Amino acid sequence: MCTGVRNLVLTFVGTNHYPEAQTPCPSGCVCDQPLNWKTEELALNRLREVEIDGLRGTEHEAALVKRLFEWATVLEKMTVTSDCSLTKSTAKKFLRVLRSFSRPGIRMEEHRYLCAINTSCTWN
User: Fold this and answer.
1) Which end of the chain is more exposed for a tag (fewer CB within 10 A), N or C?
2) Do 70 and 105 meet the contact criterion of CB atoms below 8 Å apart?
3) Which of 29, 67, 28, 62 is nearest to 47 (CA)?
């Protein structure tokens, strides 16, 4: 149980920031450990805001967001910024998936990171 966290910021560092990270993980990589992370229970009973930067639309990212919605019982706002490598249509599809996990009353904001000018813009 984590009783004190009220705001959480997660930044996924993609290949656009570190090109050497493009090599796929070898079999048995630590990033797949522990295998039961999707079923672990965690109580984030004061978490009200989550900001996630650099989403690339992966299955692991969707699973993490789904778990955050389950763990954070008083969550009010989630802001997601997709990586600039995603097309607008792919990002919108992924955000629909994320919204499907959300509860009523959670405000979701979406942004897209623009690599060329290092800013984000809100999508309507």
Assistant:
1) C
2) no
3) 67
3-class SS of residue 122: strand
Domain boundaries defined on the chain: 7-12+42-122
0.85 surpassed by pTM: no
- Give CA–CA dist 113/124, Å, rounded: 15
Phi and psi at 108, nearest 5°, equal -110, 130
Asked if residue 12 lies in contact with residue 53, where contact means CB atoms within 8 angstroms, the answer is: yes
Distance CA 91, CA 82 (A): 7
Q: What is the pLDDT of residue 77?
A: 95
Residue 43 DSSP one-character state:
-
57 residue type, one letter: G
> Angle, to 10 degrees, between the axis of helix 59-71 and the axis of helix 88-101?
30
Q: Is the pLDDT of residue 21 over 60?
A: no
CA–CA separation, 101 and 67 (whole Å): 9
First to last CA, the chain: 36
